[in-house]
Specification:
Length: about 90
Amino acid sequence: MAKHGKTLEQKKIAEYRRYQYRFKVNTVDYSSDKEALPQTSTITINSKYPYLARDIKKTALITFAILAIQIILFFILKQDLLVLPMIKY
């Protein structure tokens, strides 16, 4: 059974994945039939972890939402607007 080679689409997807995880990008021109030499270009990124700010914002938003729900629930239980059998404030 012959080994199945990658299609042009799969090669482009693999190259894009490598682009996301590296700071150097190898670009190859697949449009010509003759062999193209890869060109190397560098990308400068200001921070070492560019995804960190977005993750911290998400974590902070979830944390503040949980705290707000707990505080609202505390005041609802304290004013006896919601009575739960085994809980007294």
